[in-house]
Design goal:
Elements lengths: L53 H7 L25 H4 L2 H28 L2 H7 L4 H12 L11 E2 L2 E2 L12 H20 L5 H28 L8 H9 L1 H40 L11 H25 L10
Antiparallel strand pairs: 1-2
Helix pairs in contact: 5-9, 6-7, 6-8, 6-9, 7-8, 7-10, 9-10
């Protein structure tokens, strides 16, 4: 007699039989874990390298609900890895702001370079440093003993002055710059022989000399402007002429180092006369008087005032910047 179907499947009562073909699903929930299904043969119980088993390993060997970190959490690379600021860079508004900032910075750099080139041209600076060894030797001799020199005129080539290497009367910046550095080093040597050397004293000597050079240049430019003295001199020319006093200051310091106070004052007297004579003869041809005959005498007087100021100001600065180096050696 057949029993009515109750919806259950017949059960195989064979010993050790397991349900193999049924897979868990919505209609057939899995009631127990089927341990008869063979698992992948891993190397020593661990999955082989490679991305193929990464998901399977994490799903099937998640013991006790513990989660194993992925490769990206260990510092590895993954396709979805992001870095700080990536979202900001992907923002079109941020990209527009970055481009605007770069454009603004480019315009600012161009403006600064254009104004620097306007006041301090690189080609003009190259002219003042176009010297050679022969020129430097002759110019140093002219600064120390200028009384035998007769021709003080400048040479021109197509309305442009020739480079200093071809004209000993042309102003340069090489000798003033090197003389300034040598003055600072020699001041440190003199202070060391007097057991008074310190970095603070050396820095104070350098800053004081630099500041007085700027003040001297400004005073000359302001005086020439107030007196309305027309001249072909540029401010770099005046800076070069004002810097020649450092050569005399080096000679003065060497005299004081060798013969102490007596050698200092003798060297100061000689170099004061030499540098003043050199500047007066050099600047006399550069400062132009008025072309109007009625105002020639008045313009000539203003030119003499400027020359006398330069001739007096240089010895005073040479003494002022070296007076603190006088002292008896231990």
């Amino acid at each position: 007699m057949e029993m009515p179907s109750s919806g259950r499947q017949p059960v195989n009562k064979t010993a050790g039989a397991r349900i193999r073909n049924l897979k868990p699903g919505p209609s057939n929930p899995q009631l127990f874990e089927d341990t008869s299904i063979s698992q992948p043969n891993f190397y020593g119980g661990y999955p082989p390298p490679g991305p193929a088993y990464s998901g399977q390993y994490n799903d099937e060997y998640n013991v006790g609900g513990a989660e194993y970190p992925s490769a990206g959490q260990f510092g590895g690379h993954s396709g979805s890895t992001t870095f700080p600021g990536q979202q900001l860079l992907n923002d079109p508004v941020a990209n527009m702001a970055v481009q605007y900032g770069q454009t603004l910075a480019g315009h600012g750099t161009e403006y600064v370079n254009r104004n620097i080139e306007k006041y301090v041209s690189s080609s003009k600076l190259k002219y003042y440093f176009a010297v050679d060894t022969a020129y430097v030797g002759k110019k140093l001799g002219l600064l120390i003993f200028p009384f035998a020199h007769s021709d003080w005129s400048l040479r021109y080539n197509k309305d442009e002055p020739v480079q200093p290497r071809y004209d000993i009367n042309a102003p340069d910046l090489y000798i003033p710059v090197m003389a300034f550095v040598t003055y600072i080093l020699l001041a440190g040597l003199v202070l060391g022989t007097q057991s008074r050397f310190s970095p603070e004293h050396l820095g104070l000597t350098a800053s004081t000399a630099f500041a007085w050079t700027i003040v001297e240049l400004l005073v000359l430019l302001l005086t020439m402007y107030i007196l309305n003295v027309s001249t072909d001199l540029k401010y770099l020319d005046l800076l070069a002429y004002c810097g020649y006093k450092y050569v005399g200051m080096i000679v003065i310091m060497l005299g004081g180092l060798a013969f102490q106070s007596t050698g200092y004052y003798i060297s100061l007297l000689w170099m004061a006369i030499s540098v003043a004579f050199f500047l007066v003869r050099s600047l006399r041809l550069a400062i132009l008087p008025h072309s109007d005959p009625s105002s020639f005498e008045r313009g000539n007087k203003r030119r003499l005032y400027v020359l006398l100021m330069v001739a007096i100001f240089q010895p005073l600065l040479m003494w002022w910047l070296t007076r603190h180096l006088i002292g008896t050696q231990p």
